Amino acid sequence: MTLEAVLLIAAALFSVGLYGAISQQVVVMVMMGLELMLNGVILAAGAFWWFLSPEPTGQVLLLVVIAAMTVEMAMGFAVATLVHRARGSDMTDSASELKR
Amino acid sequence: MTLIGEVFFWVLGATAVLSGAAVFWVNSMARATYALAISFVAVGLQLLLLDQAYLGVITILMMVMEMAVMAVYMIMFMGMNPALMPMSMVHDKRLSLVTALVTFALLAAGILLTPWPSGRPAPTEDVTVALGMALMEPKMLAMIVLSPVMVATIVAGVSLSLHRGRYDRYGDDLERAAADDPQPGGVGR
């Protein structure tokens, strides 16, 4: 197992997530794409910690990434609720303008 | 890491990527949620193999709960059983695919061309204790920042998803004297 190989797995996860975040129309599916991208970031940060600098600083960074993912998810659900209430739909295309 | 550990790590890596791809390949949103949960559990187990017990466990626990909430959300908003309804709701599929492939190629080129340092420094004795001590001492600023961010997230989430907020009750400029409530109540103010 090498750092390069683990980073390639993380890059694959990030790219799959990017595809989903760009291509999906349902808000929740877009959130799934963003989550997959952050999943790749978590794995890459974990690999950097293990291979390059196994000190607590790297783990603190990972903790911040996980917290960012939590915030993204909570706000995403709240926005999905709002869009569904305002438009009667949970599609990104129906939220292309801010006015009602 | 032992040979069995390495084999397990690669199996988990393949599982994470394949189930991640399955999120956008399966034709129902409930199955997509399960696929994403599997991907997160695989990455959480990989973190456990990389000696990061605390972060691996919270990744697994948090993501399983999140995916459960996500499944409830989809059933709630889609108004049907999503597991039984095949659907494909995508736009710019080809452009998205090309963008993702180009991104992967660029990342892979960067990963393979970078001269990473060889050898692996030894981790500290007790990783979880070291993380806890760092968070309570030199890295406390991270926790000090994260705590209000979490509180702000709760407040913002509730404000956004409220059925009737203060602007609905008091008007766009909050200048209405009495709240516009369907059921007047309170103490007559």
Automatic annotation (TrEMBL), chain A:
Enzyme Commission number(s) from the entry: 7.1.1.-
Pfam families named among the record's database cross-references: Oxidored_q2
Protein name: NADH-quinone oxidoreductase subunit K
Recorded name of the encoding gene: nuoK
GO cellular component, as recorded: plasma membrane
Catalytic function, reaction form: a quinone + NADH + 5 H(+)(in) = a quinol + NAD(+) + 4 H(+)(out)
Subunit structure as annotated in this protein's UniProt entry: NDH-1 is composed of 14 different subunits. Subunits NuoA, H, J, K, L, M, N constitute the membrane sector of the complex.
GO molecular-function term, one example from the UniProt record: quinone binding
Coiled-coil residue windows: none
Principal subcellular localisation of the protein: membrane
Transmembrane regions: 6-22, 34-52, 58-83
Membrane topology: Multi-pass membrane protein
Subcellular location: Cell membrane; Membrane
Keywords carried by this UniProt record: Cell membrane, Membrane, NAD, Oxidoreductase, Quinone, Translocase, Transmembrane, Transmembrane helix, Transport
GO BP, one annotated term: ATP synthesis coupled electron transport
HAMAP family: NDH1_NuoK
Keyword match Ligase: no
Family, similarity comment: Belongs to the complex I subunit 4L family.
Record function comment: NDH-1 shuttles electrons from NADH, via FMN and iron-sulfur (Fe-S) centers, to quinones in the respiratory chain. The immediate electron acceptor for the enzyme in this species is believed to be a menaquinone. Couples the redox reaction to proton translocation (for every two electrons transferred, four hydrogen ions are translocated across the cytoplasmic membrane), and thus conserves the redox energy in a proton gradient.
Automatic annotation (TrEMBL), chain B:
Coarse class of the protein's main subcellular location: membrane
Cellular-component GO terms for this entry: plasma membrane
GO molecular function: NADH dehydrogenase (ubiquinone) activity; quinone binding
Topology class, membrane: Multi-pass membrane protein
Catalytic activity: a quinone + NADH + 5 H(+)(in) = a quinol + NAD(+) + 4 H(+)(out)
Keyword list, A-Z: Cell membrane, Membrane, NAD, Quinone, Transmembrane, Transmembrane helix, Ubiquinone
Xref: Pfam families: Oxidored_q3
EC number(s) stated in the UniProt entry for this protein: 7.1.1.-
Bilayer-spanning residue ranges: 7-26, 33-49, 55-75, 95-116, 140-162
Subcellular location(s) of the protein: Cell membrane
Protein task: NDH-1 shuttles electrons from NADH, via FMN and iron-sulfur (Fe-S) centers, to quinones in the respiratory chain. Couples the redox reaction to proton translocation (for every two electrons transferred, four hydrogen ions are translocated across the cytoplasmic membrane), and thus conserves the redox energy in a proton gradient.
Family that this chain belongs to: Belongs to the complex I subunit 6 family.
Name this polypeptide is given: NADH-quinone oxidoreductase subunit J
